Automatic annotation (TrEMBL):
Entry annotated with the keyword Membrane: yes
SUPFAM superfamilies registered for this protein in UniProt: Glycerol-3-phosphate (1)-acyltransferase (SSF69593)
Family annotation (CDD domains): LPLAT_AGPAT-like
Domain (Phospholipid/glycerol acyltransferase) ranges: 50-166
Organism this protein belongs to: Streptomyces atratus
UniProtKB keywords: Acyltransferase, Membrane, Transferase, Transmembrane, Transmembrane helix
GO MF term set: 1-acylglycerol-3-phosphate O-acyltransferase activity
Pfam families: Acyltransferase
Protein name: 1-acyl-sn-glycerol-3-phosphate acyltransferases
BP term (GO), one: phosphatidic acid biosynthetic process
Transmembrane segments: 270-294, 382-401
Length: 402
C-alpha cells in the first residue's frame, strides 16, 4: 500500500465525528492546563493505531495526555471501572471529558482491554496506565502485561510516554496549584518487549523530562527576584502614587512587566498599585484644593477642560469615565481638588473606577504570563512589544486630546 493510500485509509478509518469530538476535548484540556502553568509536548505518536503506556501519579495525567496527543488518533483512556464507572455522574464525566472506557481491576480486565482491539486497528490510540493506580513520590510501580497483550492481539505498536509536572499540579490527595506539565513521547517498543522493558522506557522518559531545565530569560529572573522580594508591593504602591500626582507612566505598565514575569504575584502587585493610586489621588485632591499646581507631563488643556465639565455635571462619580477615555488619573485628582469635591466622595468613587481597571489589567497580564510560561525565554521580546504598544497607545491618546 502506498503512503498516500495509507493516509487516506487512516483518515477514513475513524468517523469524522469522533475526530471532531477529540479535537474539542484536546482544546478544552489544553486551555485548562495553559491556565494552570502550561503544557509542553516532545515527540509524536506513529501513524495509525497504538497502545500508549505512561506513568501515573495524578488525576491530571489524563488531562495532560488528552491535551498533548494528536486528535487524529482520537485517544481513549483506560479507567478503573470500580472508581470512574461506579456512579452515573462519574461515568458521564469520564466518558465525555476524558474519552474513558472501563477496565475492571478485580477480574475481567483483560476482556475489557481486548474489546478495544478493533478500534486500535482502525487507527485509534488507547492510553493505559500499566501500574493500575496512581504512584507515590514519583516512584513507578511494576507494569502489568495487559497493554502488551492488547497491542500484540491488535497488531499495533506500544509507545512509551513520560509525564512530568502533574504530581506538582495536582498531587495525590492534594490541592490544585500552578505547574508546567511536560509530556515526552518515546519511540515504539520492539514487538518482543516485556513489562520490564516498557517500564524502563517510561522511567527513562520521565527522568529525562524532569531533569530538563525550563529555558528562561535572565531579564525575567531579575524582575522576578525584585517582585518576590519585600520591595515588590511597595514598588507598585510608590509607582502608582507618583503617577496619580505627576509621574507620566501609568501603573498598568508596571503591572504588565511584573505580572507576565511572575503571574502568582499579580493580585498582590495589583492591590498595591490600587492602594497607591487611591492614596496619590487623595493627596492630589488635597494639594490642588490648597492651590498647589504639580507638573502634569503628557496631559493637555483639552483633557483638563473635559474633566472640569464632567465634574460639574456628575461630581465625584465623573471619575468613572477615567478607565476608558485615556485621560490620566492625575488630571481627575487635581481638577476634583480645584472643584471642591469632598474627599470621602472622591475616595469612594475613585476606588470603584481605579479598582476595576487595575485589577482587570493585572489579572489579565497574569493569565497571559501563565499562557507564556513555557516560552519564558522570550520574556525580553514581550517587554519590547509591551513598551512599543504602550508608547504607540500613549502617543495616540495625547494626540487625540490635543
Amino acid at each position: 500500500m502506498t503512503p498516500t493510500l495509507a493516509r487516506v485509509r487512516d483518515r477514513l478509518a475513524l468517523p469524522a465525528r469522533s475526530r471532531f469530538t477529540a479535537t474539542l476535548r484536546r482544546g478544552l484540556w489544553w486551555g485548562v492546563l495553559s491556565l494552570t502553568g502550561g503544557v509542553e509536548r516532545r515527540g509524536r505518536l506513529p501513524r495509525g493505531g497504538c497502545v500508549v503506556v505512561a506513568n501515573h501519579s495524578s488525576h491530571a495525567d489524563t488531562a495532560a495526555l488528552l491535551a498533548a496527543l494528536d486528535a487524529r488518533h482520537t485517544p481513549a483512556i483506560g479507567a478503573a471501572a470500580d472508581y470512574w464507572f461506579a456512579s452515573p455522574w462519574r461515568r458521564r464525566i469520564c466518558r465525555r471529558l476524558a474519552a474513558g472506557f472501563p477496565v475492571r481491576r478485580s477480574g475481567g480486565g483483560m476482556d475489557d482491554l481486548l474489546s478495544m482491539a478493533d478500534e486500535l486497528r482502525a487507527g485509534r490510540a488507547v492510553v493505559l496506565f500499566p501500574e493500575g493506580t496512581r504512584g507515590k513520590d514519583g516512584e513507578l510501580g511494576s507494569f502489568h502485561r495487559g497493554a502488551l497483550v492488547l497491542a500484540e492481539r491488535a497488531g499495533v505498536p506500544v509507545v512509551p510516554v513520560g509525564i512530568a509536572g502533574t504530581d506538582r499540579l495536582l498531587p495525590k490527595h492534594g490541592r490544585l496549584r500552578s505547574a508546567l506539565v511536560r509530556v515526552s513521547i518515546g519511540d515504539p517498543l520492539p514487538s518482543a518487549a516485556g513489562p520490564r522493558e516498557a517500564r524502563d522506557a517510561v522511567v527513562a522518559l520521565h527522568a529525562r523530562t524532569v531533569a530538563e531545565p525550563l529555558k528562561d530569560s535572565v531579564t525575567r529572573r531579575r524582575v522576578a527576584s525584585v517582585v518576590t522580594s519585600r520591595w515588590g508591593v511597595p514598588l507598585a504602591f510608590v509607582w502608582a502614587l507618583a503617577e496619580a500626582l505627576s509621574w507620566p507612566l501609568m501603573p498598568e505598565l508596571l503591572l504588565g512587566v511584573v505580572c507576565v514575569a511572575v503571574p502568582r504575584a499579580a493580585l498582590g502587585m495589583s492591590l498595591g498599585a490600587l492602594a497607591g493610586s487611591l492614596a496619590g489621588g487623595l493627596l492630589a485632591l488635597q494639594l490642588a484644593s490648597a492651590g498647589v499646581h504639580l507638573p502634569a507631563p503628557l496631559t493637555t488643556d483639552r483633557m483638563r477642560a473635559e474633566v472640569r465639565a464632567e465634574l460639574a455635571l456628575e461630581g465625584a462619580s465623573a471619575v468613572r469615565h477615567q478607565p476608558w477615555n485615556g485621560i490620566p488619573f492625575k488630571v481627575y485628582g487635581a481638577e476634583a481638588g480645584r472643584a471642591g469635591v469632598p474627599a470621602l466622595d472622591w475616595l469612594t468613587a475613585s476606588a470603584t473606577a481605579r479598582g476595576s481597571r487595575t485589577l482587570t489589567v493585572g489579572l489579565g497580564f497574569a493569565a497571559f504570563g501563565l499562557l507564556m510560561r513555557r516560552h519564558r525565554r522570550q520574556y525580553g521580546r514581550c517587554l519590547v512589544l509591551l513598551g512599543g504598544g504602550f508608547t504607540a497607545g500613549l502617543s495616540l491618546i495625547v494626540n487625540g486630546w490635543s
